[in-house]
Amino acid sequence: MDQRQKSEYQGFSWHSLQDQNSIVYFAVTHKDFPDDICSRFLKQITNQLYQNEADFKKDPQNVISLSQNARISIHELHSKYQDHKNLDKTIVAQSTLEKVTGMMKQNIGKIIDNRNEFNDLENKSGNLKDTASRFRMNSAKLEQQAKWRNLRMKLIILAMIVLLTITIFWLVY
Predict the structure, then answer these.
(1) Any idea what the CATH number is for the domain that residue 13 is in?
(2) V-SNARE coiled-coil homology domain: from which residue to which, for each copy (predicted)?
(3) Is this prediction's pTM over 0.70?
(4) Which of 63, 104, 113, 133 has its CA 20 to 30 A from that of 150?
(5) φ, ψ for residue 107 (rounded to 5)?
(6) pLDDT tens digit string along 45-55?
(7) DSSP state for residue 84 in the 8-state scheme
């Protein structure tokens, strides 16, 4: 797992890359030099050293100096990457492809998250619909019960008035 870092100082960018064996590679560029191209340069140096240098394959921590072939390959890479505007079209295309792929992966992740949230909302709205339906039925029952109670109360009051009226007429006559 490679770790990249960048810092800027007085118009220059200091790029570093730490490989899986904790070996750090540095490159100094102008501030406007693209970060992804410098990172690709450092990664290619790392890959070439591990592929072509026998000492790097065995014990990279104890390598004291690089062979002439390693130095030549690093100089060739430096020449290739020195003018980033005239770089090989495949490198630029691959860099663009990696950016687009990363964005697509993020978008797919967001789509999946949105789909899960949509499913949750759909379930919650279904539950809310069921609750509203039960509430409507219960409120209709309660309304009916209240009407019957009201009617009974009115009938009881009417009966009491009639009884009171009969009692008063009976006592008076």
Answers:
(1) 3.30.450.50
(2) 89-149
(3) no
(4) 133
(5) -65, -40
(6) 888 888 877 77
(7) G
